[in-house]
């Protein structure tokens, strides 16, 4: 007898008072649950208004109901969606009624999406894209997540896989007919296929760090001597009093972080301790931490007083600005957090720099994607080296190709990902 998964249900929208609340039911008993609540189900995938009643016939709500047959839903199972009035009391009563039905239980976190994966409606990369889409705060994160959710990474991996399977098949055919005269030397075609995949993998691997930054956020550090106006500048960029400002040097002892949306990109601005020689142990710790975070940041804004040089070696692309433009001479590179002079130009320069980097991102967005592609590329490099030794070593080359294929299959969840699933789905809310 085949195992029949439980029918699950949950609130799919955010809890609390709202205009509309969506309750989702998925599983073989979804249709029966709908019939008990509303009577006759609407036609498949056709929204209809129905009155919801409990087991005693008491009216619970009037809802928009949609019924999705098996294989025609998000999870791949039979699904019922109830679009209720967003009253806390209404939602509670409907969930209570569903919970009283035999064979139904409340869904766990991420269980709807997990079923979509298990039923082949999504691959693992798309699941990660969905998680990123839910968490997206900026336009860049939104667009990047949509690309992954749409299956772009899976299509890339499938394309690479197809070429490598072709290459492996050519080698296997030669091995199978080793005792016969094979008129065609397959090595050139196999080398060509490997070269194509390695080239595409290299381009995608190079874009992973940038794609990860779009997911997690770029860091921009504000550096300079004590009392040069770093905290005032941070407050101006943030549009609020995020950091304490004072005429006394050394006010900032720790790194202050402010998250913001800059030209559609997620950016964390870092206000750091003033760079100077000090005997104050606590301030010294702050300065050391400032230098450490500044070196690790994606971009640095270095504030200097007129005629001074920064106490920090600028890197390529760093932005140097003359501080306190409201006090000092006019200069196109001067900036003032108090008056706003030069702020818009500074924001544009930051956005232009980070946008240029963001344009270099690929479809792969996570560290595990990068590791899988690096492993595949290494196996292809080994296969190339073995092929150069001649047809007597085709079997070893074929094994390296199989290793590369397994690495690429892990991207979309075909192999070696069971240990990842609990961690991935725990990040989803109940109802998703």
Key features of this structure:
single chain; 432 residues; alpha/beta; Gyrase A, domain 2; Four Helix Bundle (Hemerythrin (Met), subunit A); Rossmann fold; 3 domains; 6-stranded mixed β-sheet; 5-stranded mixed β-sheet; 13 helices; 45% helix; flat
Number of separate helices? 13
Instruction: Tell me the fraction of residues in β-strands, as a range.
Output: 15-25%
* Structural domain tally: 3
- Helix/strand/pairing category: alpha/beta
Helix content: 40-55%
Element-level helix/strand string: EEHEEEHEHHHHHEHEEHEEHHHH
Distance from first to last alpha carbon: 29 Å
Number of strands: 11
CATH topology of the largest domain, what is it called?
Four Helix Bundle (Hemerythrin (Met), subunit A)
CATH class of the largest domain: Mainly Alpha
Low-confidence stretches: 242-253
Question: Radius of gyration over alpha carbons?
Answer: 29 Å
CATH superfamily of the largest domain: tRNA modification GTPase MnmE domain 2
Rounded average pLDDT: 84
Biggest β-sheet: strands ordered side by side in the sheet: 3-4-5-2-1-6
Description:
The structure is a single chain. The protein is of the alpha/beta class. The chain folds into three domains: 7-107, 2-Layer Sandwich (Gyrase A, domain 2), CATH 3.30.1360; 129-213 and 366-425, Four Helix Bundle (Hemerythrin (Met), subunit A); 230-344, Rossmann fold (3-Layer(aba) Sandwich). It has 13 helices and eleven strands. Strands 3-4-5-2-1-6 form a six-stranded mixed β-sheet, with helices on one face. It has a five-stranded mixed β-sheet with strand order 8-9-7-10-11, sandwiched between helices.
